[in-house]
Amino acid sequence: MGFEVEPILTYDYLIKNILHPDDLHLIDAHAKKMMEEKNTEIYVLDFRVFHQNGNVHWFRVWETNFSFNIDGIPTEVLGVAQDITASKSIELQLKKQNELSEEIRRISKSGVWEWTIETNQMFWTPDLYYLLKVEPNYFKPSIQSLIAYFANGCKEKFVDSLVKAEKEQTPFDLELEILSFPNFWVRVQGKAIQSKTNGIVIIGSIEDIDDSRKKRIAL
């Protein structure tokens, strides 16, 4: 970190020169927890420090209570610290990208699906899971589950369009009602393509048009 060894052994020097002020509460809570729990488990903490040149580095420490007095109070701590600046930077960038992707999904209100007829396999983009309010980790999409999202009367229109797309390669562009709380209207587009490896594949998109449809009807 570019500092002399002797000065950094005092906590006051650490606070004034090395530890990031926004992380002091995390460090204090970490130390307090180790003192209160009085065990030899491994405690892990990520926090920021200042290099002597002014740059901010991320550190990760693994610490354990090493010795105790007769009352069971920890008196010594054994620890290892590692500079994780590079990996933390990647982690924070990925977090930011995920947050931006989440915001884009919220704004765009649309998603894409793909149905491979021969294998009956279905693929949804993350945006479609978001639009239809389902958790990707606990839901396996299928053409049957997609059909089930549409209200009565709309189901039949969607199925008919799928059949025509498969048999006649007819593209479709529909306005259908989705069952939800509350229900909302979407624009469903799709077309069939001939895949060299998977036969006929129908790809499509679903876009939330509920607000624009209500405005159009109100005119």
Automatic annotation (TrEMBL):
Domain annotation PAC: ranges: 43-96
InterPro entries linked: PAS, PAS-assoc_C, PAS-like_dom_sf, PAS_fold_3, Sensor_kinase/Photoreceptor
Domain of life the protein comes from: Bacteria
GO molecular function per UniProt: protein histidine kinase activity
Reactions it catalyzes: ATP + protein L-histidine = ADP + protein N-phospho-L-histidine
PROSITE patterns: PAC
Enzyme's top EC category: transferase
Assigned EC number: 2.7.13.3
Pfam families: PAS_3
Keywords: Kinase, Phosphoprotein, Transferase
Entries under PANTHER family matching the protein: PAC DOMAIN-CONTAINING PROTEIN, PHYTOCHROME-LIKE PROTEIN CPH1
Listed NCBIfam families: sensory_box (TIGR00229)
Record-given protein name: histidine kinase
